[in-house]
Design goal:
By secondary structure, the chain is of the alpha+beta class. It has helices at residues 14-20, 77-82, 248-255, 259-276, 320-341; strands at residues 2-4, 12-13, 30-36, 42-47, 52-53, 68-74, 89-90, 101-110, 113-124, 127-136, 141-143, 146-154, 160-167, 174-179, 182-191, 195-202, 205-212, 220-224, 239-245, 283-285, 295-297, 302-309, 347-355, 362-371, 378-382. It folds into three domains: 2-75, no CATH class; 81-212, no CATH class; 216-382, no CATH class.
């Protein structure tokens, strides 16, 4: 037992910790779990090295004017997980297609395999509970924000994302996600059976990361359609397919005015076409909001640009061909840039999907583009 007296926390010699705390070594940085005997409060602290250590103290105990008795032990990953409070993440901003709230309700660790169980309410596409299987770091870490356990989760395309659970032992826990500007606090998350969405917030700005746990192609049915109705008269007639949206969630996103949702659906429809109609293998769906190639094959040979149009005015029958012609031209210009920045690219597809304002049907036109001069020229073909 270690004592701090006179209402103040005194620095404790590291040599005493080495004598009293199993596994502690002087000079070796370590995360520590400190229990205040009187209240039972647990506080995580960090020893940075050196001859002295100052234990952390929760605010409600920092002003007490009597002797404090504490016990100290090395903080393990298992204890860190057991003490998590499961603080709810609430959708106070009213983000669409997200639950009202989500909370972590359990965890387990086997070796470095970490499983985190969540409950979301109301359910999304009948999914009320879901479990994330992750790879945890070998020990807890520490920085100015507090003590954390870092872990990695990968999607079906084997793209990893790194997250952290922060907890100080006595207060609320929270998640953070590594992005281009460092780690950002996770505001909300959801799972709909296919997509894990992680929403971070910086001030009034929200950003979303989407990880696919299953192939998105099964959310859509792709059937052949007659090409002459959508022939622009420029180059070979495109291949045309009709798209059936299987689920309620994507149908609601389709009818919305949210541009991010339409970008997401357009990329997913293009993915479904690529793997079911074009016979492409190892297709990777990129984050639509980032820019650059929307989809590509892992070998870098094929680039795909995708877009979904839903605004009814430009899609009226008398304007449809012109709209398709202009939009496809934009996608082809993007493919030309993809050819320049991806040396192995030999072929590209421009896949333009649109909502027919007459009956709400979804069609997609497919244009095949050859990279004839490695980023200098292209040749348009009918997509077969």
């Amino acid at each position: 037992m270690l004592r701090a007296e006179d209402g103040r926390l005194h620095r404790i010699r590291a040599a005493v910790l080495e004598e009293k705390v199993g596994g502690f070594k002087v000079g070796q940085p370590a995360s520590l779990s400190v229990t205040y005997a009187g209240s039972g409060t647990i506080v995580y602290s960090y020893y940075k090295g050196g001859s002295l250590w100052l234990p952390a103290c929760p605010p409600e105990l920092s002003m007490l004017r009597h002797e404090q008795t504490i016990s100290v032990r090395l903080l393990s990953r298992e204890e860190f997980l057991v003490n998590l409070t499961g603080t709810p993440m609430m959708n106070e901003a009213g983000l669409k297609w997200m639950p009202a709230g989500v909370v972590m309700v359990g965890s387990s660790l086997s070796g470095n395999i970490l499983r985190l169980k969540f409950f979301q309410y109301p359910p999304i596409e009948d999914v009320g509970q879901f479990t994330l299987t992750c790879t945890a770091s070998k020990s807890v870490g520490w920085n100015a924000d507090g003590t954390f356990l870092q872990f990695q989760i990968s999607d079906m395309f084997n793209r990893p994302r790194i997250l952290r659970i922060y907890h100080r032992g006595y207060n609320n826990d929270w998640l953070s996600l590594q992005g281009s500007m460092g780690f950002e606090r996770v505001y909300l998350m959801s799972f709909d059976g296919f997509r894990l969405r992680l929403v971070t917030r910086a001030g009034t700005e929200f950003s979303a990361a989407t990880l696919y746990t299953r192939t998105p192609s099964t959310m859509y049915v792709i059937d052949s359609a007659q090409p002459q109705d959508f022939d622009t008269g420029v180059g070979p007639a495109p291949q045309v397919v009709q798209v059936t949206v299987r689920r309620r969630l994507e149908s609601a996103m389709l009818q919305s005015v949210a541009t991010y949702a339409h970008g997401r659906l357009g990329a997913e429809i293009a993915y479904a076409i690529a793997v079911t109609k074009l016979g492409l293998r190892d297709v990777v769906l990129f984050e639509p909001s980032i820019g650059g190639k929307d989809l590509y094959t892992k070998d870098g040979v094929v680039m795909i640009q995708a877009r979904l149009l839903t605004e009814p005015g430009p899609l009226q029958h008398d304007r449809l061909r012109r709209t398709i012609r202009n939009q496809v031209a934009q996608l082809i210009r993007k493919l030309e840039q993809d050819f320049i920045h991806n040396a192995d690219a030999k072929m590209g597809y421009a896949i333009l999907s649109f909502l027919d304002p007459r009956d709400g049907s979804v069609f997609a036109t497919i244009w095949k583009i050859s990279n004839t001069q490695a980023g200098v020229g292209y040749c348009m073909h009918a997509a077969l």
